[in-house]
Structures are given as C-alpha cells and as structure tokens.
Design goal:
Layout lengths: L1 H28 L3 H19 L15 H22 L1 H8 L1 H7 L4 H24 L11 H27 L4 H17 L12 H9 L1 H13 L4 H6 L4 H24 L7
C-alpha cells in the first residue's frame, strides 16, 4: 500500500513536471508574450505615474509618497494578471490542437493537469514580476533581501489565485475572443477596484464596499506589505493588516485552485 502511494505521488509529480516544462518551452518560443505581460503595465506605470506625479496626495499619509511609488505594487499586480491571461488562454489552443483531449484520455491525474498548468503560469508570472521588481529604486523604494524574498512569496500567492481563476474561465470557453471578453470584464474591474492605482480612502460608501469584497484588494495589499516589509508606508496606503491580506489571499488562491480541479474532474466539464 505504501509503495502504491509512493508510486502515485511520483506519477503526479512527473505529470506536473512535464506539463510545467511544456509551458516553459512554449513561452521561450513565444517571447513576444513578455511584451504584452511586462511591457503594458510598465508603459502604463511610467506614463500615468509621470502625469499624476505632482497632483497625487495619499489621504492620511504621514510624509510624502509619489504616485510612482504608490502605484508600483499595482503595476506588479497587473503583470501577474496579464501573465495569467496569456498563460491560460493556451488551454483553448490545446483543445483545438487535440493535445488536451490526449492528456484527458491518458492515465494522468486531473489534479496533475491543473497543477502543471498553474505551476507553469505562476513561474512565468513570478519571473516577470521579479524582473520588474528591479525597478523599485526608480520609484524611490529601497529594496532589501527581506522585502525581495517577501515579494516573491506574495507574488506566488497572487499568481496562483489569478491563474486559477483564468484556468476556470478558459476551461469553459470555446474561442479566444470570448475568453478575452470575459477576462476583461472580470479582471480589469478587479484590478482597478483593488486600490492598485488609486487610493480608495474617502470614496463613496458603495464603492468602498465593492473594494472590500474584491479579493484582489487583499492581493495588492499583500504585495504592498511585502514590498515595505510591514512598514508604515504600507499601512498608510492600505488599512488592511498583513495578516488579513495574507489570509484572504491564501483563501482566494485555495478557492480558485480547488474550483479548477473540480472543473477538470467533472465529466460534464471535459472538453471534446
């Protein structure tokens, strides 16, 4: 029984590793994806940050915080979101090419299919986020080894959550056009209403309520706390504690991953 369990665990890991490796190879062959996932938030951050640099004032903050500095964690969150979109859309391509059907009929665990995909997308997202993290001094943010490692951990949690969400949507879609429409309808409001680019303090009551139930609010807050290693600037930008942000972000990631596994496991959800 123990040998069978070990063999099953070994098979799960091998399947995950194979699917993860395929994502890496595909990315290296489609390097233009980095332009969309990394370039778009970078251009937005620089242009909008420069435009609002002198007119931005953070409510209730002691000291000064430029808009470039405030929106920096939001730009990283945008990179993670864009990477999730570009990575999970390949599910639709795999269905068209017949690869997904071949994987489903193979003796491969449904959990391995999901985890292999999510691990691949998370690796790409965290890698691109780490590259962008090198620009922290340009936003007047001191980057230490503690904050760098904390950011890597926070990016892993947020990436798993948004990639799991993208997986659930892509699994049910038949066209890339429909996928982009749904993801733009869901992800863009989640990003904008997360406090990533504009502070929500002092906003209308109904808008504050929407922000408070938005799971990305806590993901952005987690990134901000990790970037400042729990410093006072993070507290000024968000009124969410580190513990709350981490707990809700982990719960969001667990929910999306669990929903993705359930979607693949249901016969009615199997494509083809």
């Amino acid at each position: 029984m123990a040998d069978q369990s070990a063999l099953s665990g070994s098979g799960l890991w091998l399947s995950c590793r194979s699917l993860w490796k395929r994502e890496m190879v595909r990315f290296l062959r489609q390097r233009s994806r980095i332009i969309g996932a990394l370039g778009t938030p970078l251009v937005f951050w620089i242009l909008v940050g420069a435009g609002l640099q002198r007119s931005f004032q953070l409510p209730g903050a002691s000291g000064t915080m430029s808009y470039l500095e405030f929106s920096y964690p939001g730009a990283i969150a945008a990179i993670l979101l864009f990477t999730a979109v570009f990575s999970t859309i390949s599910l639709i391509e795999d269905r068209r090419e017949g690869f997904l059907q071949a994987v489903l009929v193979a003796p491969v665990s449904r959990t391995a299919i999901v985890m292999g995909k999510l691990l691949g997308a998370t690796t790409l997202a965290v890698g691109q986020g780490a590259l962008f993290l090198m620009l922290a001094p340009a936003a007047s943010i001191p980057l230490s080894w503690v904050s760098f490692l904390a950011m890597l951990g926070a990016m892993v949690v947020v990436s798993f959550a948004v990639t799991g969400l993208g997986f659930c949507v892509a699994w049910r879609m038949e066209s890339t056009q429909g996928f982009h429409a749904i993801m733009n309808l869901v992800l863009m409001p989640m990003l904008v209403l997360s406090g990533a680019f504009f502070p929500h303090k002092g906003s209308a009551t109904w808008l504050s309520w929407v922000v408070s139930v938005n799971p990305m609010t806590y993901g952005v807050s987690l990134l901000r706390h990790a970037l400042y290693a729990g410093g006072t600037m993070a507290e000024a930008a968000h009124d969410v504690s580190t513990t709350t942000a981490l707990a809700i972000s982990l719960a969001f990631a667990a929910a999306t991953v669990g929903l993705a596994v359930a979607s693949v496991s249901r016969r009615s959800g199997e494509p083809g």
